[in-house]
Amino acid sequence: MFSFFRKKSAPTPAQPAAPVSPEADLPVPAAPTAAIAVVEPMAAPAPVVPPVAEPAAETEATEAARAGWLQRLKSGLSKTSNSIADVFTGGTKIDEALYEELEAALLMADTGVAATTALLDDLRQRVKDTRATEPAQVKALLADAIADMLAPLEKSLIVGEYHPTVIMVAGVNGAGKTTTIGKLTRHLAAGGATVLLAAADTFRAAAREQLAAWADRNTHDLSARELDPGNRVEIISQQGADPAAVSFDAVAAGRARGKDVVLVDTAGRLPTQAHLMEELRKIRRVVQKADVTAPHECLLVIDGNTGQNALAQVKAFDEVLQLTGLVVTKLDGTAKGGVLCAIAREKPLPVYFIGVGEKLEDLETFHAREFAHALLD
């Protein structure tokens, strides 16, 4: 479980929101208040919400949940791990044939030519330095090489330096964007942050209803865990309205209501749809009119099954939104996983979360070493 924590600070009285046109110039907002610090996943400071279980029992439950999630991740990446593991079976010798087989396996895992070449060069040097002679040793060294390549992608999402912290979430149709927003809301709310959702996907049928359903699931989840859900998850929506206008209203409402986070659900689109990509630029511009410091995070949700196309999506959306991080979903199906190595090599944006299923708890923080071993075990 990844939790969000915040430092205690004097409450800031909410100011009533005046109806302002999205295209009007707004005054520069007040300087940010004290930050909500996001700690590393395994750290254990006292959370804002008092624990409902004894510390030892809570730690044990958390570790058990993480172990269960890692097992699901390994299962999701089994197609890749089985393919690479086959290279090290039988009477494998540490020779050029081994490296050629590894190259083919890595390329089939969507690792990409540049990342595969870098990994094999690194592996050869590690084998030489350690004088490894057994296939199992080489496999372990490969896991280390992958972990080191992915390490720059491992970063914590920080919430609370600004109030509210505005997070835009984008992605192509079917990548799991709205579902990811629901899961991310759960992480934020369970950690004590108040969340407001902007349903800016205004033209897709039932998009607002889908987001509302996730908000309702989050509220019930908080209640079931005996965490006060009071006013933590709210939605700003307007069917058929301009997405930028809805985003503007949500940021203004988040400031007026003293929310910690505003999550903006943008409409799904393909990078080749120029008019829709331009609409993303408009949403970003209008959000900045509501808060000149926003958006504070621009996240792209990518489907782990799309292979090298995911890298193309990252480049295209980054050009429009100046992405700050990624969420990789659907690693529980036919996902090959190697695309994260390609991203690390060619466009090393932080991977804040990875997902392995449809449940609220099936979104977890990304750890390079855990992922590397899941990719090979």
TrEMBL record:
Instruction: Give me the Gene Ontology terms describing cellular component.
Output: cytoplasm; plasma membrane
What would be one Pfam family of this protein? SRP54_N
PROSITE patterns, per this entry? SRP54
Question: In which domain of life is the source organism classified?
Answer: Bacteria
Stretches assigned to the SRP54-type proteins GTP-binding domain: 350-363
Gene3D superfamilies given for it?
P-loop containing nucleotide triphosphate hydrolases, Signal recognition particle SRP54, nucleotide-binding domain
Task: Cite the EC number.
Answer: 3.6.5.4
Q: How does it sit in the membrane?
A: Peripheral membrane protein
Keyword check for Nucleotide-binding: yes
Reactions catalysed, semicolon-separated, are: GTP + H2O = GDP + phosphate + H(+)
Q: What is its main location?
A: membrane
Question: What are the boundaries of the region Disordered?
Answer: 1-23
Complex formation: Part of the signal recognition particle protein translocation system, which is composed of SRP and FtsY. SRP is a ribonucleoprotein composed of Ffh and a 4.5S RNA molecule.
Spell out the PANTHER family in the cross-references.
SIGNAL RECOGNITION PARTICLE RECEPTOR SUBUNIT ALPHA (PTHR43134)
Family note: Belongs to the GTP-binding SRP family. FtsY subfamily.
Q: What is this protein called?
A: Signal recognition particle receptor FtsY
Organism (species): Comamonas serinivorans
* Gene that encodes it: ftsY
